[in-house]
Amino acid sequence: MNTQAAAAVRPASTMLLLRDGEAGMEVFMVVRHHQIDFASGALVFPGGSIDAGDHVVAASPALLSGSDGLDAAALAFRVGAARETFEECGILLARENGSEQLVSAARADKVAAAHRTALNEGKTTFSQILIAEGLVLALDLLVPYAHWITPVGMPKRFDTHFYLAVAPADQVGAHDGSESVDSVWVRPAAAVEGAKTGKFKLVFATERNLIKLARYASIADTIAHARKEPVVTVLPEVVRYETGRQLRIPANAGYDGAVFDMSEVRG
After folding, report:
1. What CA–CA distance (Å, rounded) separates 187 from 16?
2. DSSP readout, 201-229?
3. Could you say which DSSP state residue 122 is in?
4. Which domains does the chain have, with CATH numbers?
5. Which residues does residue 65 pair with via DSSP β-bridges, in sequence order?
6. Can you tell me the distance from the alpha carbon of 207 to that of 202, in angstroms, rounded to the nearest whole number?
7. What pLDDT, in 10s, does the model give residues 171-226?
8. Which residues touch 147 (CB under 8 Å, ≥6 apart)?
9. Distances (CA, A) of 182 to 174, 190, 263
10. Which residues pair with 116 in a beta bridge?
């Protein structure tokens, strides 16, 4: 009898940054370093675990805009998404204190040049950066999109909240060179097709969310649907049957199916 305890679930956030490209809506994605033990080498949305500093920012109203009506946990997930976006992309979803305008690309680049490496190395905190630079996070730009929990039985488990945000028009984004080794703005359908041809490696949850994104032709349609559709928590369940295994997710979660053959599941 297997009595091994299930792995602890770590809270995490993921950001789907959107922009209008020449051939349609694009999303920013990074390629995970091959030495990382989770989704190594995969094309993923920027994101990662919530840390203690995210709770510090979440508990500091002076560092936030768009926080009305959100509890401490919801705020920490959003702060984590904004922090990970800055760490992994260099894109800063923030405003100068007292301003209604997002910071310019030049300002974001200056902040990144001064603090991004130290933040990634744990030598400073996100709250210290925001305070030092007189910035307020633009959490009002984040739209809840999905919520996935890693299946029971996996060695690493995450409780991940996905958010949409329109990328600032003049902030292009760039991978950090450590956790991620490449980055790309890509149409969701092209990323899915790239996984089929072997150009990209996608894990299951990423692929499902790309397929869902690909249904919409524009950012406006994507955001409008996300705002009106409730987020359904997805905790995939592996079910064994006589000739194999299936992965099942809630039918009402809005993806491209509810039952998937494990032999066809990537990641």
Report:
1. 12
2. ---HHHHHHHHHHTT-SSHHHHHHHHHHS
3. T
4. 9-264 (3.90.79.10)
5. 138
6. 6
7. 876 654 445 457 889 999 999 999 999 889 999 999 999 999 999 989 999 999 99
8. 159, 160, 161, 162, 231, 232, 233, 234
9. 8, 17, 28
10. none
Residue 167 above 50 pLDDT? Answer: yes
Distance CA 27, CA 47 (A): 14
- Tokens, residue 20: 């209008």
Which two tokens mark 56? 């510090």
More confident residue, 42 or 255: 255
Give pTM, 2 decimals: 0.91
Pick from 144, 137, 178: which is nearest to 15 by CA?
144
Indicate the pLDDT class of residue 266, thresholds 50, 70 and 90. Answer: low
Answer whether 222's CB lies under 8 Å from 240's CB.
Answer: no
Say which amino acid occupies 32.
Answer: R
28-53, pLDDT tens digit by residue?
998 864 444 444 578 999 999 999 99
Rounded alpha-carbon distances, angstroms, from residue 26 to 35, 106, 186, 226: 27, 22, 5, 16
| Alpha carbon distance 29, 216 (integer Å) | 18
How many other C-beta atoms are found inside a 10 Å radius of the C-beta of residue 157?
18
Higher pLDDT, 262 or 12: 12
